[in-house]
Amino acid sequence: MKKNTLQYILLGLIEQKGMSGYDLKEVFKNEIGEFWQAEHSQIYPTLKKLEEKGWISSTITIVGTKLEKKVYSITPLGKEQVNDWLFNQPNELASFKDEFILKLYFIKENDQQAIQDILTEQQRLHRLKLEHLYARREVIFPEKKALNGDIGHYLILDHAINREQCTLTWIERTLASLPLE
Amino acid sequence: MKKNTLQYILLGLIEQKGMSGYDLKEVFKNEIGEFWQAEHSQIYPTLKKLEEKGWISSTITIVGTKLEKKVYSITPLGKEQVNDWLFNQPNELASFKDEFILKLYFIKENDQQAIQDILTEQQRLHRLKLEHLYARREVIFPEKKALNGDIGHYLILDHAINREQCTLTWIERTLASLPLE
DNA sequence: TCCAGCATGTAACGAGTTACATGATTCG
DNA sequence: CGAATCATGTAACTCGTTACATGCTGGA
């Protein structure tokens, strides 16, 4: 019954490399944000609980002369827990919530112009996102293939790009089929 | 700042046709569940609040001899609110959470067998889902095109099918590229 | 010196899930 | 007559977001 996926993600990230709460937030922003997000207000309390359970431990590092940075590292118990999550716990399919398609559902045939407008706007948003993803891939993986230890990062980007391309293709196909009915 | 998307979805559904909380739950299960879900424990209190705001009104219908069924219908104020949501409020891109790709990210290059296992399992799940969607389309839209007033339903099914096909294609492509690195 | 960014936390609230609780109806 | 389904609600909890709150660092 217990889920709490975020704690396992934090644990997995810390296992790769000792990190602070702030560092973790950056990873969400730069690497895995396409498939999971968390605010720092959720990250810090979760780290606290993980330390209480003995899955991670922390040491204070001083930045500059005063600023305290709490760097976490994984414990043997923590490693067991990540492995259990990775290999023993089934991952159910992601449950999506997308209000865009619901708006289409509600507008229906009585307003073709509105359908077209909403599809076009969604197309614009997905194009922007896709361009942004292409640009990032260009910077990080100029060879268009994974490097040394960054296969995970490459797969996530590739998966996100694939998702956007497919969504755009569907929107274009649907636009082309207008007027419906 | 205020969002509460669920209330607009309930409102939109009730606008199409007077419905009870139970009926609404069935629509989530049968029509729009691929892109939004809600339990009855969330639906009933939301309906109550909508009635308090005067966006919907209810009448009691008797089923059999005793069972009370509360059928809601939309008010003029409610219609205004749906329209405002549909046409004036921007719909941001859906934010996805998918632990499957994160597991791939964490496993990385050190265990090719595990990567293959997890991809194959995910492939199995998406194939099942896709077959299920095909079967439903066959039953509801045997002509493979939208009918009379069911364009919204058709678009949702079509979008869900497209999503599953694309995900499967990506999984197959990634499996074919193994071993990585 | 000022400002963006580094760094960490808590509080309040809203959204969503699971469990608890009850009773009627319909069909085999 | 029994089981699945129809029908409605509340309680307790977890998850997630926004806002509040504070202070340091590094570079222009």
Alpha plus pi helix count of chain A: 7
Largest interface: A-B, 57 and 57 residues
**How many structural domains can be distinguished in the coordinates of chain A?**
2
Portion of residues in beta strands of chain A equals 5-15%
CATH class of the largest domain in chain A: Mainly Alpha
Largest sheet of chain A: 2 strands, antiparallel
Apparent shape of chain A:
elongated
The CATH topology of the largest domain in chain A is given as Arc Repressor Mutant, subunit A
Question: What's the name of the CATH homologous superfamily of the largest domain in chain A?
Answer: Winged helix-like DNA-binding domain superfamily/Winged helix DNA-binding domain
User: Taking strands numbered 1, 2, ... along the chain, how are they ordered across the largest sheet of chain A?
Assistant: 1-2
Number of separate strands of chain A: 2
Poorly predicted segments of chain A: none
Mean pLDDT of chain A: 93
> What is the gyration radius of chain A calculated from CA atoms?
21 Å
Terminal Cα span of chain A = 46 Å
Topology as H/E string of chain A? HHHEEHHHH
Q: Structural class from helices and strands of chain A?
A: mainly alpha
What's the multimeric state?
Answer: homodimer
